[in-house]
Design goal:
Structural class: mainly alpha
Strand content: under 5%
Family: Belongs to the amino acid-polyamine-organocation (APC) superfamily. Spore germination protein (SGP) (TC 2.A.3.9) family.
CATH class: Mainly Alpha
Number of helices: 14
Radius of gyration: 20 Å
Protein name: Putative spore germination protein
Number of domains: 1
CATH topology: Amino acid/polyamine transporter I
Subcellular location: Membrane
InterPro entries: Spore_GerAB (IPR004761)
CATH architecture: Up-down Bundle
CATH superfamily: Amino acid/polyamine transporter I
Membrane topology: Multi-pass membrane protein
Distance between the termini: 25 Å
Length: 364
């Protein structure tokens, strides 16, 4: 890929934050709360700590072998054939998860704001936006994220300030919810919440210097974790645990409670605007990254040509579930547990191969 203008560390930070922190606006809080009750607010911290070893391993190996991107690392350590097999497996997992995530987002838009609009129409519009934005290239995506992220963070801060009087901190107790073992188990199984960071390793060639990626990406990841924990804490303090586990979209639900006197009505549309922009940037970035991943696996230099077909394939797969409930209760939950196992397994496979190469005297 030819990139005339490289991404800065701040743009990497912005892309990382938008990619990771959007879980505060989907059904993730209610899904975790069903298993951990009022302890769900700090489960993301356990998930992050659980995902740290695979992330650290990949970052170390990428630096150690000066790999251009993920697939390059796979082929360096496993050979061309097995490296491509692993690349295909990663692509397929990412592809299906992104398809179901987009279906979930479409369900949110329909249920909460456009009840009379057909699912197909909303999905088609989201697909067109994601394809158009992805074709513009990673530099445009990064620049857009850099401009938009401060406004998104300010909108979240405004929301928290406005609902602060209704917060009841005592609702976080008992601190271990359904029990310590259950909380830690759920934290580990949901560590794939941060696995999308691994996809960002595909864009190393588009960053000015590798250290800019590591700096922006790691800081963005840490800030995202803090942001998620804090917002989940707000959810716990605002809703009681019986409410949060039956509230599919707590972010949108909480905006319904915001009031600024009698003059300002329908204030939730203000937050909807910023949520939609963040959503667009996220789906655009994910489409670009998996297209790049597919192109790298099959040695397609002009992988941008893949964005259009892959974008529409995502829509077709996403439309297969008959309703949003199936997506959330089955795919979103079970598929993420499966992804956790995969994201833990393949970095250690690569690490084992690295040690084997060192022993044989074949490492760089």
């Amino acid at each position: 890929m030819k990139v005339n203008s490289k991404l800065s560390s701040f743009e990497v930070f912005c892309l990382t934050n938008i990619l990771i922190s959007m879980v505060i606006t989907d059904t993730t809080p209610s899904l975790i709360a069903q298993q951990t009750k009022n302890a769900f607010w700090y489960v993301p911290l356990i998930s992050f700590i659980s995902m740290l070893p695979p992330i650290i391993i990949l970052l170390y190996l990428m630096h150690r072998y000066e790999a251009e991107h993920l697939v390059d690392l796979f082929e360096e350590l496993l050979g061309g054939f097995f490296g491509k097999i692993l690349g295909v497996m990663l692509f397929l997992l990412a592809f299906f998860i992104i398809a179901f995530e987009k279906r979930s987002y479409v369900g949110q838009i329909k249920i909460l704001y456009f009840e009379q609009s057909p699912i197909v129409v909303i999905f088609a519009l989201l697909t067109i936006v994601s394809i158009y934005g992805s074709i513009k290239g990673i530099k445009v995506i990064g620049y857009t994220a850099k401009l938009f992220l401060p406004f998104f963070l300010v909108s979240i801060a405004i929301l928290i300030i406005l609902i602060y009087p209704s917060i009841v901190p005592d609702q976080i107790f008992p601190i271990f919810g359904t029990g310590m073992s259950q909380v830690f188990r759920e934290g580990f199984l949901k560590s794939s919440l941060f696995s999308s960071f691994i996809l960002l390793l595909m864009m190393l060639p588009a960053v000015r210097k590798p250290k800019d990626f590591y700096k922006g990406g790691i800081i963005g990841l840490i800030i995202s974790v803090i942001q998620i924990i804090f917002v989940f804490f707000i959810y716990t303090s605002f809703f009681d645990y019986n409410s949060i586990e039956t509230t599919p979209f707590p972010f949108h639900e909480i905006t319904q409670y915001v009031r600024i006197g009698d003059f300002f009505t329908n204030i939730e549309t203000f937050f909807l605007f910023f949520w939609l922009l963040a959503l667009f940037i996220r789906v655009i970035l994910l489409l670009y990254l998996i297209s790049w991943l597919f192109g790298a696996v099959f040695n397609i230099t002009q992988f941008e040509l893949l964005i259009l077909p892959i974008g529409f394939l995502l829509m077709i797969i996403g439309l297969l579930p008959s309703n949003a409930t199936i997506v959330e209760s089955l795919y979103h939950d079970e598929y993420y547990d499966l992804l956790t196992i995969f994201m833990w397994a393949f970095p250690f496979l690569l690490l084992f191969s690295h040690f084997f190469k060192d022993k044989k005297g074949g490492s760089k």
